[in-house]
Amino acid sequence: MKKSTIVYLMVVSLAVALAFGTFTAHAWTPDEQALLDKAKEIASDNAGVWSLEEAAKPYRGVTLKILADAATEADAPQNYDSEFIKMTGIKVLWEQNPWDEHRSKMFMDFAAGTGIYDLVWVPFDDMASVTGKGYVQPVDKFMLNPKLLDPNINLDDYSEALWKYTSWYGKPAKPYGFPCENPTMILWYRKDLFDNPTEKANFKKTYRYELQVPKNFEQYNHIAEFFTRKKGERLAGEVLDRDFYGVGQSGKRHWASVCEWMNLASTWGGPTWGGTLDENDDVVINRPENVEALEYWISLFRFSPPGSVDWYWDLKSTAFQKNIVAMALAWNDQSYEIEDPEKSEVAGKMGYDLIPIQKYPVSHFGSWSWTIPTKAKNPDAAWLYLQWVNSRDIALKCALEGAMPSRKYVFDSPEISAIPFMPATKKALDHAFPRPVHRPEWGEMGEILALYLTKAHRMEMTAQEALDKVAVEWQRLLGTSIVHPPKT
Amino acid sequence: MGLLIPSSGQDKEKTVLKRKYTGYLLLLPTLALLAFLSLVPFIYAFNLSLRDLNLRIPRLAGQFVGVDNFRYLMREDSEFWHSMGITVLFLVVVVSIEFVAGFALALLLNREFKGKRIVVSLAVIPMMIAPVAVGLMWRVALNYELGIVTYLLKSIGIPMKEALLGTSATALATLMVIDIWQWTPFIFLIILAGLHSLPKEPYEAAQVDGASKWKIFRLVTLPLLKPLIIIALLLRVIDAFKTFDQVYILTGGGPGNATDLVCMFAYRTNFKIWNLGYGAAVVLVIFLVILIVTAFFYAVTQKKEEEVV
């Protein structure tokens, strides 16, 4: 390769990275890197001399209580806890609750300072709150304790963005745990329909280009329109016995609509904090690109089942399972349900890819962090369990049972790579962006956004009016500025 | 038992006093428990409502803010007043319809016929289902693509362009229908029990006097049932005001804020946003409204009783 070509490629790569690289934009700061380096140094010194059995000796007989979400990620480790108990003599008791109930218990326990739980799963939406309130403790002291640090902790395994947004909080930021449940949004599409020769030919005749996985939202719109058919029409050679829709969207006043729309806002106008706040936390939710993205999202409901105005994420996957939708922006962890032949009419017929790009490549991700409460009665033993359950070996075993991986090692394993939606998930993480979870006000901000998104798509107000309203309400909460003065 | 055998006038007085205080003493544990269970949480909530405690926001750590929460609630929180408005609309509509339908059903079934027990048992089934289960059941039934309700409505020719819970125009009405379905049996059961317990003499006297059926209903049945009707309405009004489960499961307060009944608003403020200071103010205002309604019904009952005496 010519030298000039190499230089050209380097310049282009750098430009792309600067323009799109949400991942690289959040690299470790020098302080954070120093902490990680120190931990790696200790891990290296511990190699060959440290053992979990020995480290756990002082805590033999202790019982750890864990409060977790009712999710596969929490079900899976329990199948292997017996190994930990056998090695350490530390017992482990799990308590799992659905999302709302879990958060109630978590906040109540933290506020009361009972110290009942030694480990608590915290949604990253609440991490700024629980760290700011001092409800949970940083784990750097455990990471830097030679007696407690497993040499095989492999800290390089964690995607920076994922780990940082999930578990690093405070100024300067400190780690409070590791990711434990981290769904990412990807594109679901009906591969069998996209590959059907008749459909391909008809699509080309109508839109004058090949039917393919949509690369941008113009194509996404065309494909959504193309596949929307009435009962009695033909789809892939078969007469439809019910209406079929090009796209499935979540329209309920719920976080489902917030997360879905944030993908559009971010790809239209840039992914910082889901396209809602700028680097100074000034409000940009009503920027022109977001208004356009909201208008686009609302217009897509023409090709989405009429009932989808009341959907959150569970009904989206049900619609796929029942074979009435061709495409959607969806959470990767729900893909297991779609690929389950006992539950789904479309198992084995699905394709997965990155979310189409309007301007910036994006993927909205959600996450939960393992944390050790400040009042935990057995913090050292909790750290040992935390370290063990996140080890490569256990993480891989859990991923094979349906838990979403956090470690690169697990993503790269041949067994995981073979799962149909995992390659797309891994790629999506390169463009992963979070919602503005760094703000403790985010809980209320999200509720306000959900309200006005539904008001806009129910045509109670225009997209501009809705986002202006959100901007004003957010400014009241945050006390920062609105970059684009409300027009309405 | 010497206490009960007075030997002189002074002793007699003492004994009366002791009897009087023994009664109070025996009541004391129950009164103390009641006070503890109702007053302590109330005082705690009141104290909380004067603070800015938010479990999510570190700077809002529970400082005393006086009546700021109430001031904001009363003067500036349009969302709260919207919730209050639709809650009043909801309860007026559902309680009225439940009352008329329940009463009519009770009158209809207030006679002996074969299979009466089975019919009555079937009629009260909706009331026996837990509200959460009702919500989940209707959520499936109302699903636009797969639900039985949508299917039936379409099959009888009703055009269904959108999900019943998906539009502001129909979502609240749908919640009302579900509430009426669930709670009409409650009114029916109370009125039916009341009808069974009515004395026969006034009816016989009215018949002897040649009163028409309508007159007997208006001048005999209704007045005799009035105390029961008031209690039934009071319970339903309080319960309808507190409707939460179905809203939480079926609509989450949406679309927009079309079904954001006041308890859903209070839940979101307290347990989603974790603004406990403001949330306590919201809850106290709801409590106050229910207290006023209860006092009104109580006053009406007392008045009727006085009239009877």
From TrEMBL, chain A:
Q: At the top level of its lineage, which domain of life is listed?
A: Bacteria
Which keywords does the record carry?
Answer: Signal
Q: Which residues form the signal peptide?
A: 1-27
Pfam families attached to this UniProt entry: SBP_bac_1 (PF01547)
Return the protein name: Extracellular solute-binding protein
**What is the originating organism of this protein?**
Aerophobetes bacterium
User: Mind giving the lineage of the organism this protein is from?
Assistant: Bacteria, Candidatus Aerophobota
